[in-house]
Structures are given as C-alpha cells and as structure tokens.
Amino acid sequence: AQTVTQSQPEMSVQEAETVTLSCTYDTSENNYYLFWYKQPPSRQMILVIRQEAYKQQNATENRFSVNFQKAAKSFSLKISDSQLGDTAMYFCAWAGAGSYQLTFGKGTKLSVIP
Amino acid sequence: DGGITQSPKYLFRKEGQNVTLSCEQNLNHDAMYWYRQDPGQGLRLIYYSQIVNDFQKGDIAEGYSVSREKKESFPLTVTSAQKNPTAFYLCASSPRTSGGLTDTQYFGPGTRLTVL
C-alpha cells in the first residue's frame, strides 16, 4: 500500500521568514502525482501546488515551491515570505497515474507568528 | 459561482439513526469523492464515483452508502452500522480524464457530524 509520511506534526515561523515542510512517500510506481493542500481554520481544503513525477522541474506557485526528489521519494514544500494567512494545516498527498484515489499524510500544523 | 456545496455545515444525530450528507457541484466534473477526517489524521477515502450510476468503495466504506443518480450530486448516507460516525466529512470533485486521476480534486467546505 502507498503511504505518505509527514514527520513534523507542528511548525512555526516568523512572519516574512521562509519555512520548509517535509513529506516522504512510499511507492513502487513510476508515474504518479503529488500535491500539497492547505486547510485553514475554516477547514476548506485548498490546493497549494501539484507536481507530476515525470517532470524534472520543481513546481512553483508564487511564494510556494517544492523540492521534489524522486529517487529519495521526498516532496517538501517551501513557503517564502510567510504571511499570517498561511497559518493552516498542510497535507501532502499522493496519487498514482490512472488512479482516482488520493493518499494523504497526517498533516503539519503551521503557525505564522507576527 | 462554480463550486461544491455541502449541507448542512453541522449535523447532530442520535445513535442508531441513519443520516444523509448532501454534496452538490456545478463544475461539470465527472468524478466525485467522499472523505472522512478525524482529529490528527489525514483524509481517508470512503467512496468515489467516476460517472453517473457508478461508484466504488474506498478504504473505509463499511457503514456508509452512496448514490450517483445525477452528475452534480453525490449524497453520502451514514448508516447505523458505522461504529464511530462522529467526524468531519469532505466531498470533492475532479474532471475525469481517460487516464484516471490526472487533475486536481476540488473540495467542498465539509460537514461536521456529531452522533450523540
């Protein structure tokens, strides 16, 4: 079975600083997709960023970027210039190509401190 | 506005009663999903549906049932057989592609179910 591990249950960062959230996964598949979702206190799940495993280039979305290391099965999220609105639970998720099922990690609670 | 709606936001039921959670989307997505979220846990898939009148069990389908009579609607029934139904339930949808999941799942605001 595929597993996704987020080893940091909680993290904090000062406003305007940079923080990196870790995610590792276990799979024997070669083609798959990785996601970071954000869940603020409202509990709405919001897509932050997505990466296709066949792409060498790391995905970026404004202040959010990933460090995708396929051989190491690692998919970390970097948040630059942290803002108070970034305070949320962050979930890493994996999906095999051709699969409709997302496998989620248990999440990292990020607090941005003013 | 296009999106996914779930109602109600909070739901209380007595033990032993069946309860149905609503999920509607106007994104014209083919695929829809139900997840359960417990404190300190990620999301776990209950059921999903790729097209109308078809659905498959996820990892934790026992004690739940679904129907997909319309493309835009995917209601979830929590039956009395579900041992621990108190949880936060999230519905999602995504476009269907020929290769399976290659596009993003979009989530509704969720329903908090409390069984007394």
How would you explain this protein's 3D organization?
The complex is a heterodimer of chains A (about 110) and B (about 120). By secondary structure, chain A is mostly beta strands. Chain A contains no helices and twelve strands. In chain A, the strands form three sheets. In chain A, strands 2, 5, 6, 10, 11 and 12 form a six-stranded mixed beta sheet that branches. Chain A has a four-stranded antiparallel beta sheet with strand order 3-9-8-7, with no helix packed on it. A two-stranded antiparallel sheet of chain A has the order 1-4. The model of chain A has no long low-confidence stretch (mean pLDDT about 95). Helices cover about 0% and strands about 45% of the residues of chain B. Chain B is globular. Chain B starts with a strand and ends with a strand.
Average pLDDT figure of chain B: 90
Radius of gyration of chain B: 13 Å
Structural class of chain A: mainly beta
Q: What is the oligomer described by this structure? A: heterodimer
Shape of chain B: globular
What structural class do you assign from the helix and strand content of chain B? mainly beta
Radius of gyration of chain A: 14 Å
Element pattern of chain A in H and E: EEEEEEEEEEEE
Shape of chain A: globular
Determine the most extensive contact between two protein chains: A-B, 25 and 28 residues
How many alpha or pi helices of chain A?
Answer: 0
Q: Estimate percent helicity of chain B.
A: under 10%
Largest sheet of chain B: 7 strands, mixed
For the record, give the distance between the C-alpha atoms at the N and C termini of chain B, rounded to a whole number. 35 Å
**Poorly predicted segments of chain A:** none
Amino-to-carboxy terminus distance of chain A: 41 Å
Number of H/I helices of chain B:
0
List segments of chain B where confidence is low: pLDDT < 50 over at least 5 consecutive residues.
Answer: none
Major beta sheet of chain A, specifics? Answer: 6 strands, mixed
Beta percentage of chain A is over 45%
